[in-house]
Amino acid sequence: MVQVSYSYKNREFYQLEDSIMNQIAESGKRMLFALLEPIHDVLITENGKIKICLDERPNIELVGFSAPVKHQIECTLRGEEYEN
């Protein structure tokens, strides 16, 4: 199972308090899962978390994934072809 959360100033959110921000966050989650759809079969076997950090330098952290799957996710998010 893959979880997606947002992080801001070392606080983690699964649902944001502001309804407009929560709609934007949910839209972001849907887009992220759409990007990762081609590797859905690989993600089903993993128990990891995708943490979207919204601090001064926004980034995406992958936590709890095996190294090959983490690399495959990173390649997919960058739009690169994954090679075994």
Keywords:
alpha+beta, 84 residues, four-stranded mixed beta sheet, single chain, globular, 3 helices, 25% strand
Walk me through the structure:
It is a single chain. The chain has 84 residues and is α+β, with helices and mostly antiparallel strands. It has 3 helices and 4 strands, in the order ββααββα. It has a 4-stranded mixed β-sheet, with no helix packed on it. A hairpin with a 2-residue loop joins β1 and β2. The two termini are 23 Å apart.
Gist of the model:
With 84 residues, this protein is α+β, with helices and mostly antiparallel strands. The protein has 3 helices and 4 strands; from the N terminus they run E-E-H-H-E-E-H. A hairpin with a 2-residue loop joins strand 1 and strand 2.
The strand line-up of the biggest sheet is 2-1-3-4
Biggest sheet descriptor: 4 strands, mixed
Rg estimate, integer Å: 13 Å
Uncertain residue ranges: none
Portion in helices: 40-55%
- What is the helix tally? 3
Distance between the termini: 23 Å
Overall SS class: alpha+beta
Share of β-strand residues? 25-35%
Shape: globular
**DSSP, total strands:** 4
Secondary-structure element series: EEHHEEH
Indicate the mean pLDDT: 86
